Write the structure tokens for this entry.
Amino acid sequence: MSHRKELTEIAKLFFKLGSIAFGGPAAHIAMMEDEVVTKRKWMTQEHFLDLVGATNLIPGPNSTEMTMHCGHERAGWKGLFVAGICFIFPAVVITSIFAWLYQQYGQLPKVEPFIYGIKPAVIAIILMAAFRLGKKAIKNSELAILGVVTVTFCLLGGNEIIALFGCGVLGLAIYYIRKNTANIYSIVPFLLFQAIEPLKTGTLKIFLVFLKVGAILYGSGYVLFAFLDTELVASGWLSRRALIDAVAVGQITPGPVLSTATFIGWQMNGVTGAIAATIGIFLPSFLFVLILNPLIPKMRKSKIIGAFLDAVNVAAVALIVAVCITMGRDTLTDWRTILIAIVSLLVVFVFKKLNSAFIVLGGAIFGYLLSFL
């Protein structure tokens, strides 16, 4: 396949995923695994797991960074940028429309009936990915125990970054116990980012604020809102109501939750503010992945770092399971959502080659119809 055809293939795939990927990073990664590993065979399940584990250890939106890794695997640095931009683009456009409507009318459109059935359907997609990735990640009984401990820790409210690094360190400890060696390798922190000085209100400040967020944001997208509450609401630059509505937009739009930066930027300084916020929050991810991707195969060749990665990979799968359980508790609240989830699970596990887009679309239609009963 020619380079141009590869880039076109990448663009079509990640534009599609950006248009249908509801449910947060765990769901996005589940859909990616289905498309790039199971269907297209761009990489092995083991390498995909390594990318997921490594991505969890750096700042930025995990699922968006995974699209960039997948693009890089297929077509080098050009593929990285094409995949990332095409995944982000639909969410940014949809969020911009919501931002304009909100600015004009002061409220968001009523779209709840159309997304009622999407989350139960997405739970099935996540479970299937966790099942497939878990089979590859759990290589021995010690890693299985680490996975169970990580799921429990996360469900009890533990910080996911502590879970990832802690699991990695325990994996290293197990490796040293097994090998009975005193060698030790240092893991150098990936990045230090200094806080920006207050600047004049305007597009440049919007860009720099969101650039800082994109460079230091760990964990879920909800950390973004806590940060912006301190950074923007407390300073009187953005109302708390607008920030809460931005959270709602993140829930009802597909693609990365960080596209809500577009909504917030629009409220602060119109179209130029939206563009500045969007570029600022996603730019660090492109740079991180560009640096990290070539290092992962070298990391895997080292037995010591490989042991760390194995444990982190199990922790990454455990995080996906924990997200799925939490989402299930919040989503499966009546017989309709439970029915949609059961039907979706049956479809996912029986028709394994069915495109996840049809699961999302089917859940939306099913949920819309059942919401009237």
